[in-house]
Amino acid sequence: MDIDETTRPLRKAAGELALHTANQKNSALSCVAKSIDRFRNEIIEANKADLAESKAKGMSDALLERLMLDSKRVDGILDSMKIVVSQNDPIGEVVSGWNTANGMSIRQVRVPLGVVAIIYESRPNVTVDAFCLAYKSGNAILLRGSSSALNTNRVLVKAIKEGLRNAGENGIEDAIALCEPLPDHSDVDAILGAVGKIDCVLPRGGAKLIQRVVQNAKVPVIETGAGVCHLFVDESADLDKAAKIAENAKIQRPGACNAIECILVHEKVASDFLPKLEKTLAGRVELRCDEKSYSILSSSKSPKVVKASDSDFGFEFLDLVCAVKVVSGIGEAVEYINSHSTKHSECICTNDRANARIFQQRIDSACVYVNASTRFTDGGEFGFGAEVGISTQKLHARGPMGIKALTTTKFLIDGDGQVR
Known about the structure:
Blueprint (H helix, E strand, L loop, with lengths): L2 H15 L4 H17 L1 H17 L4 H7 L3 H16 L7 E6 L5 E8 L2 E6 L4 H12 L3 E5 L5 H17 L9 E3 L7 H7 L7 E5 L2 H10 L12 E5 L5 H13 L8 E7 L3 H12 L4 E4 L1 H7 L7 E3 L13 E7 L2 H11 L4 E5 L3 H10 L4 E4 L19 E2 L7 E2 L6 E8 L6
Parallel strand pairs: 3-4, 3-6, 4-5, 7-8, 7-12, 8-11, 9-10, 9-11, 12-13
Antiparallel strand pairs: 1-2, 2-16, 14-15
């Protein structure tokens, strides 16, 4: 890939897009949504080809589910676009303003980042979500998806570009580019080294991808993290409610980054909760248990109950597998989570208000839940319409990243001849 040739049109498009009004951007995005709808059948057929190739290569069912696009999911993509279109345009928003003692007027205003690159695995819906949020926030975007979704991404980008052309002067076709993956990943290296050409790169995928980007990038990175998420069942928890939350957080989409990978149980309720959990999961999840939890569940003689190894704790399975550990109380639970999580999403099930607040205050993660599934960590569920990822870092953005997360600010100063 010639990074100069790829980014030059994006940079020019970003400059043009920064001047577009909210109405112009919304008109263009509405045209894109109509184009995606027209391309629906072609998108789904391309996705079937991707699924067949990935299945033949041995991709797990959970990851195949993440890759899949059907008509219902295309509807979901279009619904997300409608929400983004309906949201206020953040560009030009005055974040703060004041007058100095010498009469100058200072305003801090929100502006686009410029040219954004996203490197992501599977999940072709990200292609549209990332484009839509970038365009609405005035950014051009370079998409580098995985080879497993290449056929789908090609058609999606074709549909997006047609929609931008159909928008006439309101659409900027060069505001999006698709980088087709190379076997040696030299394209990724080119993106990570594109200082002055790309303003920010976001990795979205598994731990291996994220580590590669973070460790090798020369351009600024917003780390959207792998999800080693935890559920802690406190001694005061409603155990029936806790079992249902565990079921949803693990099973609803096990290949998602906001699915739980470890369940911690207070020792005082472990003997009651763990059999209830096993019954609720009904053999659908392999439980990799520490010594205490295994001693409680081993009597069931279920092949889904096995002894855990040390490497199972702090590991992102992205599958119907979950680690289980018995802890002495909230103190041990908090210490364990903070030392094993990826700072994504954690949950406590409790009826003790004090423990709930301790958990939320002391857990160092982007999203901390009380009595609710971690599966809600999602831009759509948070009301953003879509997301470019879940940031697990602390600088610039944290948690689900919507429109404003793709902006920065600058200061505008008006004077009348003042000198220092």
